[in-house]
Amino acid sequence: MSRLQQKFADLKAAGRKALIPFITAGDPRPEITVPLMHALVAAGADVIELGVPFSDPMADGPVIQRASERALEHHVSLRNVLAMVHTFRQQDAATPVVLMGYLNPVEAMGYAAFAAAAAQAGVDGLLTVDIPPEEAGELLAALRPHGIDPIFLLSPTTADSRIATICRAASGFVYYVSVKGVTGAAHLDVDGVRAQVERIRAHTDLPVGVGFGIRDAGSARAVAQVADAVIVGSALVRRIEELRDDPDTLLAQTAGLIGELRHALDGAH
After folding, report:
1. 57 falls in which pLDDT band (50, 70, 90)?
2. Domain count, the chain
3. Which single residue of 11, 24, 132, 187 could bond 67 by disulfide (Cβ 3.0 to 4.6 Å)?
4. Catalytic residue among 10, 27, 31, 60
5. Could you tell me the residue range of the domain that residue 231 belongs to?
6. Catalytic residue status for 189
7. Marked catalytic residue, from 27, 46, 49, 228
């Protein structure tokens, strides 16, 4: 059983929902990333979604685009991100880490080389925004022998036939994008999310995580009532941006935000 499968099984047995914060590796500076990962886990995060900086993050809104820009100013590469995961693993062998990003850096490294290096570093899952499952055969073949779960996105406009195709290719969990548009956009329609999650569950037994549009404890609590995992990105990255020149306060306040969301999730049912 993979770390992701184990985590979701443990949470389900405890009647709890997964809290998955997203941060961009290397933002605002590379040396902050690993301490920040540990602080988020200590505050109640169940899985860490670690963004791989990319020069053209087309699925991301301005907040996360700027996070990539800050990391790239420090020349943070995919290999640097893997080194950060390796360092994190020296103190935390249990918390799953999912890399989120775009195909180009993985393709440049080579699928087989990436999969081997990621597994050695302690990566548990990979979400590449810009590769559909129909084109992912070679990548999936490289990931699976190393036990790395491929995570795919589903959106409000995904047809039933395509939900089935995506769910067959995925493992670990599936990621439902709760709003049309980029990260950090639009208003969250919880009733709409509920209907879509039910539609997805007709095609898979995998846990369903919901992200894009979760801004605060109230929206996190509402989503936790219908999904298996709540994914928080822009709200957290915005806090990091505001505090980027004060590392101690950054760590304390981001942990505080995750603590508030953890409390909200645990009171959601």
Report:
1. confident
2. 1
3. 24
4. 60
5. 3-266
6. no
7. 49
